Amino acid sequence: MTPLQQLAATIEARKGADPASSWTAKLLSKGPEKCAEKFGEEAVEAIIEAVKGDRDALTSEAADALYHLLVMCAARDVSLSDIEAELESRHGTSGLTEKANR
Fold first, then answer.
1. 101 falls in which pLDDT band (50, 70, 90)?
2. Which is nearest to 68 in space by CA: 28, 21, 99, 17?
3. Packing angle of the helix pair 3-14, 55-75 (nearest 10 deg)
4. What family does the database annotate?
5. CA 67, CA 78: separation in Å to the nearest integer?
6. How many CB atoms lie within 10 A of CB 88?
7. Short-list 12, 5, 22, 4, CA closest to 65
């Protein structure tokens, strides 16, 4: 299991947990909108570090953004497997072609 798969499994396991026992459970208990807001904040922080060129800070913020992306998706019952399947369906297709077909 990759670290991303492990993270997704942990997030999934926390969906029914007591919000007092887990940051993930607490975030999920606040609903999809709050999860989306938090993802947006973390994405902006990653963008800032990318612009600044701080590799270590970008790596850290990217990890935070990935975590919050998975939490946001879990809040809407979209799993990492769902995302991987979507990516697999796009494999071998030019990005320009894929975008034109939307």
1. confident
2. 28
3. 40
4. Belongs to the PRA-PH family.
5. 14
6. 9
7. 4
- Structure tokens belonging to residue 86: 């979507």
Residue with token string 């297709």: 93
CB-based burial label for 70 (10 Å; 0-12, 13-18, 19+): buried
Q: What domains can you pick out in the chain, each with its CATH number?
A: 3-100 (1.10.287.1080)
Average pLDDT over residues 85-97: 85
pLDDT in tens, 24-71: 999 999 999 999 999 999 999 999 999 999 999 999 999 999 999 999
